[in-house]
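Researcher: Here's a chain I'd like modeled. Treat it as a single chain, no partners, no ligands.
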Amino acid sequence: MKTRKLVMGLVLAGALGLTACSTGEAVDIGDGAATGTGVLQAAIAGEPDQLDPHKTSSYFSFQVLENIYDTLVMTDENLEMVPALAESWELSDDQLEWTFTLREGVEFHDGTPFTSADVVYSYERILDEELANAWKLSAIESIEAPDDLTVVIRVAQPTPNLLSSLGGFKGLAIVQQANVESGEITTNPIGTGPFSIDRYTQGDSIGLVSNESYWGGAPEIAGVNFRFISEGNTAVTALKSGEIDWTDSIPTQQVAQLETDGVNLGIVPSTDYWYLAMNQANEPYNDARVRQAIAFAIDRDAIAQVAGYGTADVNQLAIPEQSFWATPYDTYRTDLDQAQQLLDEAGVDGFTMDLLVTSDYPETVTAAQIIADNLSQIGVDVSIRQPDFATWLDEQNNGNFDMLMMGWLGNIDPDDFYYAQHHTDGASNAQGYSNPEVDRLLDEGRVETDDEARKALYAEAATMIADDASYVYLYNPSVIQAWSDSLQNYTVLPDRAVRFADVSLSN
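Model: Modeled as a single isolated chain. Structure tokens:
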């Protein structure tokens, strides 16, 4: 039986990247129980770089970690925040103090009781060590644990996006101090989630086993075996043959065929976005007119088609149209005459551009060829580089690029789409954009508690960001996943969280 699920998405949280597969020796943990009857066979498109949720930025890592760890709160199917390790919370009248009441009887995988001290340790670790997601906690003034089941977080200003920051993805997971201090967290993480790690064979797979003491109820399946299959055609063949039960390693050009091949196909509009960014430390990209010329010269429809084969929606801003926070914007039609006029006004003629994409995202390589052809028509000679993602990340962080193409995954709150990327002091402002008025609007948006007023602030900021071509936005992709008829009760989520706690397997 074939089913196709079309679900409307809202907005996601935090930028997650991909890493290339690596090879290595097996790390056996436990007794190998995560193999056999009732074990879900899942194929993901690459290998985690590590399994410390506070330090990794790999989407492959988070696909696994989603099933090992918990956060205080979590997203539901509509990306609303719901209870997780915290069963309830209260906000003070001045909106500066959040009090979380924790669940009783929760245990880590090794049987150690979970308490408020673990929450304090986890957040203070992120802040004190200035780890990847410290910016999500930047408003916090203090974190206290008055008793084992209460956590009090005091913020410096009203913080309407605090819940989505704490629970939007497992980068803010609650970890165990002993597991961190032993150094085992990178390969043998101990969480409170529905599955615990059983074995890790580098270059091949990670096996998880069901947590019979899980606070949400023991999973029906015995475990999950995450196989690393980077070649999408191989993963699809394995699914059709019954070798695996689930995969998201799916070439978009195969989606139409899969709809007729007797597998379950889930296509969910996501709130991810893909973009181009130009290094404003390099000439001529420090001139907004040059960046705007690039925005007018590219063919977004063609780029979205080769990247998504009909599953991506062209967009000139970050937030997709179906979101409450979306802003109408259509300034950049493909117009080569306008592009050339802007270059003439900037006094720029016939230059070479270094375009950084990554082989770990094959769609960026294909899109780069279209972009190169587009820009050649206004005298820009594009030289395409396509390293693996780890190298790509180093090149971005070192400012070694003229223009790059990449996507942001997992955003929920409007702050997630714009602050880190476009505020002068933003942690991910690799392009070096600075606009004092945008800074003011983004700062005000962070503390505004009225949704309509907040939406207006972000609409104004987003329009300025696009007008300045801080990013040249391309499209919003879909979440595409496929599974066999034997997998029951699986839900595709718009934030790409892969959760197997509630699924079952039939013969």
